[in-house]
């Protein structure tokens, strides 16, 4: 099937349609990197939301198919979505017909409004989290980036179920995970062997753990994903790489963090003691490691204390 699919797509444009001016967003050029045949990713900066990056911190990816473009995540604002739409048009004449949102964090679905002619799809668990947190997320993005977002522009996607699906004539396999945010869509493209991890995978950037139901659950789901026969993975943050590389780094960080918090709690010490540790050398080179570590301790450590005292899950 793979050879057949790739042959059928050989007529699609891989190079820009014509010489074009660079697509700029927040005074930076947007670029698309080819990760497979007719498949590109747009990498966000390895920073937190700020006025200097205008919210472009998460990755997006798009697949050009004979029936239209499949966009995976749309960015942090309608304004960014407009720039992304212009960029995509430099790589294929096909319109964006489907937008798949991997989870409910705003840097991955607030750009949907720029693709109002496309079908927006996500898991039921993700949609529920979007509905729950949408207003707070809109306010937070405005506060951190200095750019207001119209509440009416952030509509919720339709629900799609995990499993084998076909968009137009293009098959994909969807996996329902929850380790990162409570509702995480992972997408496997068997035609190109590309695995789109969303924020289940971070690479060269420390993982954000704000909404994880459990670091252990996240690790278990990553083990399941590592068994898939993929050749390239696109993380939610950071560059593309072989799946073992991205999953391995994310897993190692989560394992170290989980063990460290467990050890400090078992000694009956407080959060300040949990913060007073050096991040291991092999993890210290990741962007935002001190920032995300501090956030993780402040948000997750009470769970570890509760588990020790009351046997609560963490």
UniProtKB/TrEMBL annotation:
Residue stretches making up the Metallo-beta-lactamase domain: 57-237
Any one GO molecular-function label of the UniProt entry: hydrolase activity
Keywords assigned: Hydrolase, Signal
SMART domains per record: Lactamase_B
Record InterPro entries: Metallo-B-lactamas (IPR001279), NDM-1-like (IPR050855), RibonucZ/Hydroxyglut_hydro (IPR036866), SoxH-rel_PQQ_1 (IPR030811)
Swiss-Prot/TrEMBL GO biological process terms: antibiotic catabolic process
CDD domains per the UniProt record, alphabetical: metallo-hydrolase-like_MBL-fold
SUPFAM superfamilies per UniProt: Metallo-hydrolase/oxidoreductase (SSF56281)
Residues spanning the signal sequence: 1-19
NCBIfam families: SoxH_rel_PQQ_1
Family named by the database record: Belongs to the metallo-beta-lactamase superfamily. Class-B beta-lactamase family.
Protein's name in the database: MBL fold metallo-hydrolase
């Amino acid at each position: 099937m793979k050879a057949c699919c790739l042959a059928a797509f050989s007529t699609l444009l891989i190079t820009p349609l014509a010489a074009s001016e660079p697509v700029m967003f927040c005074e930076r050029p947007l670029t698309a990197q080819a990760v497979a045949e007719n498949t590109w990713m747009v990498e966000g900066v390895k920073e937190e939301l700020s006025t200097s990056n205008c919210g472009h911190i998460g990755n997006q990816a798009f697949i050009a198919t004979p029936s239209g473009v499949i966009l995976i995540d749309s960015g942090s604002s309608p304004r960014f979505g407009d720039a992304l739409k212009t960029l995509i048009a430099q790589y294929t004449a096909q319109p964006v017909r489907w937008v798949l949102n991997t989870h409910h964090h705003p840097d991955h679905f607030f750009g949907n409004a720029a693709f109002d002619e496309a079908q927006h799809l996500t898991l039921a668990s993700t949609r529920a989290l979007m509905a729950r947190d949408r207003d707070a997320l809109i306010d937070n993005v405005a506060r951190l980036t200095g750019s207001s977002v119209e509440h009416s522009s952030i509509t919720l996607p339709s629900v799609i179920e995990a499993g084998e699906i076909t968009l137009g004539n293009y098959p994909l396999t969807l996996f329902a995970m929850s380790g990162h945010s409570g509702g995480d869509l992972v997408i496997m493209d068997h035609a190109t062997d590309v695995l789109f991890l969303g924020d289940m995978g971070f690479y060269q950037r420390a993982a954000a753990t704000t909404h994880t139901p459990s670091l252990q659950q996240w690790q278990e789901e990553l083990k399941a994903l590592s068994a898939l026969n993929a050749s390239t993975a696109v993380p939610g943050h950071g560059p593309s790489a072989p799946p073992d590389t991205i999953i391995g780094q994310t897993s190692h960080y989560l394992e170290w963090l989980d063990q460290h918090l467990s050890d400090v709690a078992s000694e009956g010490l407080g959060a300040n003691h949990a913060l007073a540790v050096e991040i291991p050398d092999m993890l210290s080179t990741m962007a935002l490691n001190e920032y995300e570590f501090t956030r993780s301790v402040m948000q997750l450590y009470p769970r570890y204390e509760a588990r020790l005292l009351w046997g609560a899950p963490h």
